[in-house]
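TICKET: design request
STATUS: open
ATTACHED STRUCTURE:
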């Protein structure tokens, strides 16, 4: 029984990532679970060991600990390949030659069914003829592999409902997700489902940008006969301009804040405050296990948090709740 945090080691963790990690840690510890870290480094072009080291150091600096070794997805390609073969043997995998641009154009011409998340794949290559496939291959195009999520497009998408600890009841459709990218790399939705199951993850706390992908992941779990963890999708942090938090917004990582003279403990205090988590302002990192004892993920402040620089405060910033 574990909770987990699964960052992509492509840069420094920003305050939004740290806040998600903190909530995942508190949720796991408050329910007597282990807490594991998994590096989602499928994208080896961007992922780098120095980012992984930096991210782990930052998590430790705000007082988080984890159990066992850190797992890396880049070392598990064989496992994903086996799962793909299982789905393929059941006739649930097909080749897709569409570029992103082609998918976008297709969606513009014929909008998605109402239950599908924006950008869902319209199923173009489901019915590709052998002649067309051969022509595309001869043209040098390499296919991605997609899941045949429902047996017939005419019946509409498979609908999956679940109760999210934070976001409440959620229902969404499942499109034909990519299982292997056209560069041969396993796709996120497949890898995450396998890893969560194999690592004994029974609680997933992550950013609510992934709420729409959860029905896809539950569908894959069912197809692969894997158990479904409980989910808690927590609000993201945005900049004052309404864009997702990034370096453009100023000092938003521990490094940047340290250069401004801000300690990790002050950052932790502000992060707890922004989630409405009860804590004592004095040295929050020493008291994290006490905080965990009283923590309830369902009771955190809902709605997005907006980052604002606030030089006169101990953390140098505030995360204002924007409802
Ligand atoms: N690796 C993803 C990210 O960094 C998180 C995936 C997950 O938690 O399922 O956004």
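STATUS: resolved
RESOLUTION: sequence designed for all positions
ATTACHED SEQUENCE:
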């Amino acid at each position: 029984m574990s909770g987990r945090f699964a960052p992509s080691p492509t840069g420094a963790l920003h305050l939004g990532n740290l806040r998600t990690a903190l909530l995942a840690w508190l949720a796991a510890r408050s329910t007597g679970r282990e807490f594991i870290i998994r590096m989602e480094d499928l994208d080896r072009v961007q992922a780098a060991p120095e980012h992984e080291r930096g991210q782990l150091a930052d998590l430790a600096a705000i007082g988080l600990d984890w159990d066992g070794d850190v797992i890396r997805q880049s070392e598990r390609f064989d496992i994903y390949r086996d799962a793909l073969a299982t789905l393929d043997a059941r006739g649930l995998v097909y080749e897709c030659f569409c570029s992103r641009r082609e998918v976008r154009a297709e969606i513009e011409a014929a909008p998605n069914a109402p239950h599908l998340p924006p950008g869902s794949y319209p199923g173009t290559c489901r019915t590709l003829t052998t002649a067309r496939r051969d022509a595309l291959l001869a043209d040098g195009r390499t296919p991605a592999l997609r899941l045949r999520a429902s047996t017939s497009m005419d019946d509409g998408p498979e609908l999956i409902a679940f109760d999210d600890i934070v976001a409440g009841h959620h229902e969404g459709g499942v499109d034909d997700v990519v299982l292997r990218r056209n560069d041969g790399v396993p796709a996120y939705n497949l890898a995450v489902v396998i890893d969560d199951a194999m690592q004994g993850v029974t609680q997933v706390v992550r950013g609510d940008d992934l709420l729409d992908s959860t029905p896809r992941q539950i569908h894959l779990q069912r197809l692969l006969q894997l158990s479904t963890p409980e989910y808690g999708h927590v609000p993201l942090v945005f900049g004052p301009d309404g864009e997702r938090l990034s370096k453009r917004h100023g000092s938003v990582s521990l490094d940047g804040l340290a250069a401004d003279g801000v300690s990790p403990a002050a950052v932790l205090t502000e992060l707890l405050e922004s989630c409405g988590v009860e804590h004592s302002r004095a040295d929050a990192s020493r008291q994290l296990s006490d905080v965990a004892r009283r923590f309830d993920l369902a009771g955190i402040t809902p709605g997005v948090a907006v980052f604002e620089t606030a030089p006169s405060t101990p953390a140098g910033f505030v995360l204002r709740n924007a409802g």
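CLOSING REMARK: The domain at 82-191 is CATH 3.90.800.10 (Glutamyl-tRNA Synthetase; domain 3). The CA atoms of residues 37 and 97 lie 34 Å apart.
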